[in-house]
Amino acid sequence: MISRKPDRVAIIGAGVSGIAAARQAIAYGFDPIVFEKSPNLGGIWNYSDDPDVRSVSFSTTSLSSKELMAFSEFPPPEKFGIFMHHTEIMEYLNLYVDNFKVRHLIKFSTEVTAVNRADDWKDSGHWIVTTKDG
Question: 89 φ, ψ to 5°?
Answer without folding.
Answer: -65, -45
